[in-house]
């Protein structure tokens, strides 16, 4: 794998077993981009497109990342073998990145939106959301940071999950990784790619390979056949009939397979389900075509009938018709342990839920392999009518806990379902639902997600304290600090939350905020009197964390507030200057030296800041700065 060194802006090659941590860029290509050949040349800085690479490296470097991967210049596209390997590996590369920066060049900087945490219309209209390749670049990484035209942060995949879900059609649970991508039907995944565009028609298929965990050779020039090949490869590994649940506007289109992801535009709520045959034959492909076993329903003479796919859309009439047949199991389970009731509840189909319950043949409180009941899925989706309907049944336990120890109320708090929380809290059995099996309260879940309205609602109760700790010693204030939720932190502090509460690793909210780079949160905590010199179990103070992570604004803020510039890591002897030199943060080095930091300080092995910088970076200008200061 080839990566860019963010300090030197040079390409470096790594073997598969020695790839360092890296960040990755997602962007839409401009007319002219910096290529691999440009980067190998002597005049790369003069090329159009260099500024994007430079800005990306600068941002990654300032956030503590030594390497970045950018598709335009890290792949030698003149080599067809390398290009094929890269495209087949791309989903994994995005998946294994520490963080992905999504640069939206057509979204202007708006300080008001940045302060409020909201997005303007330009965000939803960005062409980044319309491109084929950016779909996997949104789904695969553990974290995605959206950046505007001026490289200012708009928000993350997590904080903007509702907006991103609304724009892309991708469920929130997929964006937040609360639900495995592998459990989503083929048709649903294809629907996310409908109407997205790529420059080459074949790339509409190639850009989806990672989403289905498929590898196949690239044949540019094959046109729509690429998408046919993709579907054939999918059928070899997935026995999912929803791959046939599409419609085409093309006249006289014949064949079981679609010619474009656009055919799945209306398939967003198609889910796989096999209520007919306990053990059916798998899909097979041969030179004679596709063979699959389906239930056939006759509707007229001469063999006319309907072949019923093992998929469903949650439609009342169809379900009623199927239940009327004596050989249909109303409570059958799929390979994930989910029943028709579970899927209907999770999609908010209240009439279908009622119909299934009326059969008297379903277990309303049944759990799937994750321990989740139909009630949990209805709560996660925010379907109040379905929740109410299920809670009226004696065989549905409101306090049921899934395999993670979470109750339906825990899920409601995490998903920001205020109306459902009120519904649960109005019940007499609420007490047993306020904490999950790890000791986390619903206030803790709401604080982590930054749900201000729910935090207000819960703080008004007398049975939920602001300082309740979970099994790891974490309080709601701790979770709010880690998530950077200023308004929630103010609510908790106003209610008397302990500003110095420490988790089992002795991390205070201030240490967390400094570690994450939340300057507004750090300012709030300092104004409220938080201890700047508190140390975690690793011996790091907030200043040491800010220096290590490259948060220069925070370093200046802490120093201006009087933080000890010579505070030392207890076991390693690192000062802020040593750790900034070790991590390669030039701006912080200059700031600390200007503030009078001891450039001759030594760690536990006698190594100075200059030694660390020379070993790790060797940049002449900073070495010269150290030498000038030593000569004074």
Structure description:
- With 632 residues, this protein is of the alpha/beta class.
- Among the domains are: 181 residues, no CATH class; 114 residues, no CATH class.
- Helices cover 40% and strands 7% of the residues.
- The protein has 31 helices and 13 strands.
- The strands form 4 sheets. The protein has a 7-stranded mixed sheet with strand order 2-1-4-3-5-6-7.
- A hairpin with a 5-residue loop joins strand 6 and strand 7.
- Helix 20 runs parallel beside helix 22 and helix 30 runs antiparallel to helix 31.
- The relative contact order is 0.05.
Keywords:
seven-stranded mixed sheet, alpha/beta, 632 residues, two-stranded antiparallel ribbon, flat
- What percent strand? 5-15%
Task: Trace the largest sheet across and list its strands.
Answer: 2-1-4-3-5-6-7
Shape assignment? flat
Give me the count of strands.
Answer: 13
Helix content: 40-55%
| Average pLDDT metric | 86
For the terminal residues, how far apart are their CA atoms?
45 Å
Question: Spans with pLDDT under 50 lasting ≥5 residues?
Answer: 275-279, 298-302
Please give the count of helices. 31
For the report, how would you describe the main beta sheet?
Answer: 7 strands, mixed
Oligomer: single chain
Radius of gyration: 28 Å
- Estimated structural class: alpha/beta
Strands, helices and their partners?
Layout (H helix, E strand, L loop, with lengths): L1 E4 L4 E4 L9 E5 L8 H5 L9 H13 L4 E3 L1 H4 L5 H17 L3 E4 L7 H6 L4 H4 L9 H6 L4 E4 L5 E4 L4 H8 L3 H4 L10 H8 L9 H4 L18 H13 L33 E2 L11 E3 L2 E3 L3 E4 L6 E4 L2 E2 L3 H8 L16 H8 L2 H9 L15 H8 L2 H8 L16 H8 L2 H8 L16 H8 L2 H8 L16 H8 L2 H9 L14 H8 L2 H9 L14 H8 L2 H9 L15 H8 L2 H9 L14 H8 L3 H12 L1
Parallel strand pairs: 3-4, 3-5, 5-6
Antiparallel strand pairs: 1-2, 1-4, 6-7, 8-13, 9-10, 11-12
Helix pairs in contact: 14-15, 14-16, 16-17, 16-18, 18-20, 20-21, 20-22, 21-23, 22-23, 22-24, 24-25, 24-26, 26-27, 26-28, 28-29, 28-30, 30-31
């Amino acid at each position: 794998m080839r990566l860019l060194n963010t300090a030197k802006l040079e390409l470096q090659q790594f073997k598969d077993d020695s790839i360092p941590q890296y960040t990755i860029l997602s962007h839409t290509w401009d007319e002219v981009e910096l290529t691999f050949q440009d980067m190998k040349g002597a005049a790369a800085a003069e090329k159009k497109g260099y500024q994007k690479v430079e800005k990306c490296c600068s941002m990654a470097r300032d956030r503590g990342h030594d390497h970045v991967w950018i598709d335009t210049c890290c792949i030698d596209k003149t080599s067809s073998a390398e290009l094929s390997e890269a495209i087949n590996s791309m989903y994994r590369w995005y998946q294994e990145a520490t963080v992905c920066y999504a640069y939206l060049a057509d979204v202007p900087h708006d300080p008001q939106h940045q302060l409020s945490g909201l997005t303007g219309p330009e965000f939803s209209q960005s062409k980044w959301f319309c491109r084929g390749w950016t779909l996997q670049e949104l789904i695969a990484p553990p974290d995605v940071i959206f950046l505007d035209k001026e490289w200012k942060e708009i928000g993350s995949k997590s904080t903007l999950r509702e907006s991103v879900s609304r724009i892309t059609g991708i469920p929130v649970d997929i964006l937040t990784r609360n639900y495995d991508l592998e459990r989503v039907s083929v048709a649903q995944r294809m629907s996310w790619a409908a109407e997205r565009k790529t420059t080459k028609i074949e790339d509409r298929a190639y850009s989806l390979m990672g989403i289905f965990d498929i590898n196949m050779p690239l044949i540019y020039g094959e046109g729509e056949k690429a998408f046919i090949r993709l579907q054939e490869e999918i059928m070899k590994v997935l026995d999912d009939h929803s791959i046939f649940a599409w419609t085409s506007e093309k006249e006289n289109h014949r064949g079981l397979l679609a010619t474009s992801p656009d055919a799945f535009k209306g398939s967003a709520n198609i889910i796989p389900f096999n209520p007919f045959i306990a053990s059916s034959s798998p899909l097979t492909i041969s030179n004679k075509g596709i063979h699959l076993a389906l239930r056939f329903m006759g509707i007229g003479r001469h063999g006319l009938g309907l072949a019923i796919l093992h998929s469903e859309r949650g439609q009342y009439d169809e379900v009623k018709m199927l239940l009327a047949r004596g050989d249909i199991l109303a409570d059958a389970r799929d390979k994930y342990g989910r029943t028709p009731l579970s899927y209907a509840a999770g999609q908010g189909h209240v009439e279908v839920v009622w119909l299934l319950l009326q059969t008297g043949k379903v277990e309303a409180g049944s759990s799937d392999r994750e321990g989740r009941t139909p009630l949990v899925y209805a709560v996660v989706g925010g379907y109040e009518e379905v929740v109410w309907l299920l809670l009226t049944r004696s065989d549905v336990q409101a306090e049921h806990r899934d395999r993670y120890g979470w109750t339906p109320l825990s899920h409601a708090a995490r998903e920001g379902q205020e109306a459902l929380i009120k519904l649960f809290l109005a019940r007499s059995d609420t007490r047993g639902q306020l904490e999950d099996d790890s000791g986390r309260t619903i206030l803790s879940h709401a604080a982590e997600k930054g749900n201000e309205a729910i935090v207000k609602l819960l703080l008004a109760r007398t049975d939920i304290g602001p300082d309740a700790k979970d099994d790891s010693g974490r309080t709601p204030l701790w979770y709010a600090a880690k998530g950077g939720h200023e308004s929630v932190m103010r609510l908790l502090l106003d209610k008397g939350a302990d500003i110095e509460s420490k988790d089992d690793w002795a991390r205070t909210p201030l240490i967390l905020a400094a570690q994450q780079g939340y300057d507004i949160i750090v300012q709030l905590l300092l104004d409220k009197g938080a201890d700047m010199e508190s140390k975690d179990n690793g011996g790091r103070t907030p200043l040491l964390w800010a220096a290590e992570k490259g948060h220069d604004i925070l370093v200046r803020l802490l120093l201006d507030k009087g933080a000890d510039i010579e505070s030392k890591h207890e076991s390693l002897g690192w000062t802020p200057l040593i750790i900034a030199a070790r991590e390669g943060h030039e701006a912080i080095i200059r700031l600390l030296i200007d503030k009078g930091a001891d450039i001759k300080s030594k760690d536990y092995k006698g190594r100075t800041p200059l030694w660390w910088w020379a070993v790790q970076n060797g940049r002449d200008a900073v070495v010269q700065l150290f030498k000038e200061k030593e000569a004074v």
